[in-house]
Specification:
- The protein contains 8 helices and 12 strands.
- About 35% of the residues lie in helices and about 25% in strands.
- The longest helix is centred in the middle third of the chain and has 16 residues.
- A 6-stranded mixed beta sheet has the order 7-8-12-11-10-9, with helices on both faces. Strands 4-5-1-6 form a 4-stranded antiparallel beta sheet, sandwiched between helices.
- By secondary structure, it is of the alpha/beta class.
């Protein structure tokens, strides 16, 4: 299945704010190494940060002069990580070229400066900033990237099970990657019987676009249509927060594909603690939990 890497409904020449992610080529040196103390809040002296390599320093220099590549684009914030780069990019006014060509010129500038044929892998991921999502949330998410990596390396046990995960005003059992709720690009997957074919097609494209570009899909994935969305999103490398109705037993471990997704850091399973019966009321409660997660 073809990955929906671009939003078909969006004009990539218009004024907009994006979070862009570029991945390092396997042949390129790491952009930096992790340093600092993860126990300190992000931004404080001595807290986690990435010490840039020679390639990383070149990338940072070119980011600072991005206006030479495209004067209508501003870099509001960025996070240089060992194997990828996040940029919060603001297209301040309509451009003559689509965003992909501007990113391509950015890559060429870095390749020339490093004397390499390919610092980044092909393509890029983008997430479009919605009006409902604040810039402060994105600033914080990007700023805390090094700390999240440090916590992951220092405490792999944090990515397994917890009995009190706070969602809204309530606490739930959960298993998996507890950093997924921090992603600012989360979308609830819910298919209503009354949805028109046009509405279903638009949602399908939006959900797969989100999954293919590093976002998180949140749902109990109950109906056949929702299960199909999940299966297609898994093929794109998507990440998920799965709401289930059963409580998690003391030695609970997911099975099958859920186990593999948890091990890869791509899944968080949240228990609504409602018992085994999949009633209409249980389904409504699980969808409400999914909605609350997406609003956080």
């Amino acid at each position: 299945m073809e990955k929906l890497l671009r939003a078909r409904w969006h004009d990539y020449t218009q004024r907009c704010i994006y979070m862009i992610t570029l991945s390092k080529s396997p042949l390129a040196e790491d952009f930096g190494t992790l340093a600092g103390d993860y126990r300190l809040p992000a931004g404080e002296p001595g807290s986690s940060y990435i010490s840039a390599s020679p390639t990383g320093r070149i990338i940072k220099d070119i980011i600072k002069n991005f206006c030479e590549i495209e004067p209508k684009v501003k870099i509001l914030q960025y996070a240089l990580m060992p194997d990828h780069l996040h940029m919060l990019l603001f297209v301040t006014e309509p451009t003559q070229e689509i965003l992909g060509r501007i990113i391509a010129r950015f890559k060429v500038a870095i390749n020339k400066a490093t004397g390499s044929n390919g610092i980044f892998t092909k393509g890029f991921n983008d997430q479009i900033l919605k009006h409902s999502r604040s810039l402060d949330t994105l600033y914080r998410y990007i700023r805390e990237n090094p700390r999240r990596l440090a916590v992951m390396r220092a405490h792999p046990e944090f990515f397994r099970r917890v009995n009190r995960l706070k969602i809204g005003e309530n606490y739930y059992q959960a298993y998996g990657n507890f950093q997924l709720p921090e992603c600012p690009f989360k979308e609830q997957v819910i298919v209503h019987r009354a949805d028109t074919p046009e509405k279903r097609a638009a949602n399908h494209d939006m959900w797969l676009y989100t999954a293919a570009n590093g976002g998180v899909l949140v749902s109990p994935f109950i109906s056949p249509a929702e299960k199909t969305i999940r299966a297609e999103a898994e093929e794109t490398g998507g990440r998920f927060i799965l709401i289930i109705n059963q409580s998690l037993a003391q030695r609970y471990k997911p099975v099958g594909r859920d186990f593999g997704l948890c091990e890869a850091g791509r899944l968080l399973i949240v228990s609504a603690g409602l018992g085994a019966d999949l009633t209409r009321a249980a389904c409504q409660t699980m969808n409400t939990i999914a909605e609350t997660i997406c609003k956080q």
